[in-house]
Design goal:
- The structure is a homodimer.
- The first copy, chain A, is mainly alpha-helical.
- Chain A has a single domain, classed as Farnesyl Diphosphate Synthase.
- Chain A is built from 16 helices and two strands.
- In chain A, helix 3 runs antiparallel to helix 4, helix 4 packs antiparallel against helix 6 and helix 4 packs parallel to helix 7.
- Chain A starts with a helix and ends with a helix.
Chain lengths: ~325, ~325
């Protein structure tokens, strides 16, 4: 384990803050600087650097792509926050709240352009392949966000449809971060694919963990209101599993609480948690998460290298799966 | 003159309609198909194909970039229409009106990704240079749109600032369409630069023509309300020139009408046109336009090729400058 996750995160943070955006027009570039200064765990670029390191690419070759992927991720958050009318991001006002929706749309567009520019700064021999995977992923992330919005207005969503949606919205980017690191290191097609599949499975597991934490997390550590998804009737893995397995009394009870219009949200949260408990919904979610995590790790195991070379990546994955926020 | 502008436009239209977008999710891709089916003159991609032809590239090598640039242009219109709250585009409801703002934001994002994908489909030897110019241009177009919005809220805008804004918002893309065609044909740096400068000057002249047509166009041919810019106090080249050269009575008269809150917009239009007449504002605008057009043509003349080889490009430019809509 030649480098720790913390070292990587620190270095990425420093590089991100050194990205030089023009001063003018301030209404275009200030929101971009603001968004990137909000912080975050910088896990995606850390994955890119780790994948590059595993296959012996230099950090400087992989850094532009790592930064580009983080800028892209932040662009998607910026535009998603407009669509979701989210007032806060990491405890600070969102760009459309602090400025306005037009500023948020346009500075988001500029941020996406900037991310593409960073992706073109990888070594020229691998640039076309990197760009191709990056753009395919970007389009899939748009599809995932659209499906997420579509699901809000749909009566019935199957668990498979939900898993497909989070795969597109969240997981393919995790896979691409890893695969692009491997591409930069000129890894073989098979190794690139294994890292990609590792990342996609890890990404879906990560999102299921998020669904679980929203209900069962520690409010202090989770950093946002526990039960938010329940209050909003958000079609998460938990709710869809409950709707799928409930029948008779438990189903009518669940449907009654989903229609609840009263003010006592805590009562609704407790009632639905109690139905989840009866139906062993948490266990189902954890089982699915564990299965995806095992599937992810099997792709690391399949790499024709010593397990020690993927040690930091395994530590990072374990951190992700054991997280409380 | 081996190919007519009309032939090119027809071929581009057919190729655009053949772009294969996924059916699903419909809320993401339907707005994209709708936007591209609204029509338009397809002048930007025609410029790319003409530039490529001048330097002997095959049409099939240049077509992906031509289409990518048209898709990019339509993406900017889609997002601009949200920001401008425009109800109509080419006489049809805008995407944010027909669907909603969220759909317009996200399908615009997808459209931008698609344009980048098309740009990567040019021959691999020129792809990095093409991509670099394309992304630089995309960022400048964002800057231009932001400046345009900033100017709405500013008291004073100089004519130079206005020309800088339309250069970014409109003209650099015209320059890039030509330069990218030349890049694909492996033209020399100097030839690429001449075509770029030809396009940028032509683009600024084109926008001044637009400002003039908004006041002096034939309503039937112009296809929208003549005088719209005057009614909205839009800081066009004409209004800024008038504010710059007015003094005493003409200045106070102009300022009075800009504050007009009555219902008789035609009276406002007539009054301000009469001030423009006194101040010879139209003549100033036409003079600037002619100067830019001459400057543009001087860059075509500077190319080390026979004038006959740029004949179709000259016909297209002349069409643009003589247009009535």
């Amino acid at each position: 384990m030649s480098v720790s996750v913390e070292q990587l995160q620190k270095e990425i943070e420093s590089q991100l803050q050194q990205l030089n955006f023009p001063v003018f027009p301030a209404t275009l570039y200030d929101p971009l600087r603001y968004t990137l200064a909000l912080g975050g765990k910088r896990l995606r670029p850390a994955l890119t650097l780790l994948a590059a390191e595993i296959f012996a690419a230099s950090k400087s070759d992989a850094m532009p792509a790592a930064l580009g992927l983080e800028v892209f991720h932040n662009f998607t958050l910026l535009h998603d926050d407009i669509m979701d009318k989210a007032p806060l991001r990491r405890g600070k006002p969102t760009v459309h709240e602090k400025w306005n929706a037009n500023v948020a749309i346009l500075s988001g567009d500029a941020m996406f352009v900037k991310s593409c520019q960073l992706m073109t700064d990888v070594p020229s021999s691998v640039m076309p392949a990197v760009m191709k995977l990056f753009l395919k992923t970007a389009l899939e992330v748009c599809e995932g966000q659209q499906l997420d919005m579509d699901f809000e207005n749909r009566e019935n969503v199957s668990i498979d449809e939900y898993l497909h949606m989070i795969r597109l919205k969240t997981a393919v980017l995790v896979g691409a971060c890893l695969a692009i690191g491997a591409q930069i290191a000129n890894a073989s097609e098979s190794d690139i694919n294994h890292l990609y599949d590792f990342g996609v499975n890890l990404g879906v597991a990560f999102q299921l963990q998020d669904d679980i934490l929203d209900v069962y997390g520690d409010e202090q550590k989770f950093g946002k209101q526990v039960g938010g998804d329940i209050i909003a009737n958000k079609k998460t893995f938990l709710l869809l599993t409950a709707l799928n397995s409930a029948s008779g009394d438990s189903l009518s009870e669940l449907q009654k609480w989903m229609l609840y219009k009263g003010n006592d949200n805590q009562e609704k949260v407790n009632a639905i948690k109690s139905i989840y408990h009866q139906l062993k919904v948490r266990e189902s979610a954890e089982q699915k998460m564990d299965q995806l995590y095992s599937e992810a790790l099997s792709h690391l195991d399949a790499l024709p290298i010593k397990a020690s070379q993927t040690q930091t990546l395994r530590v990072l994955s374990a951190m992700l799966m054991a997280r409380q926020n």
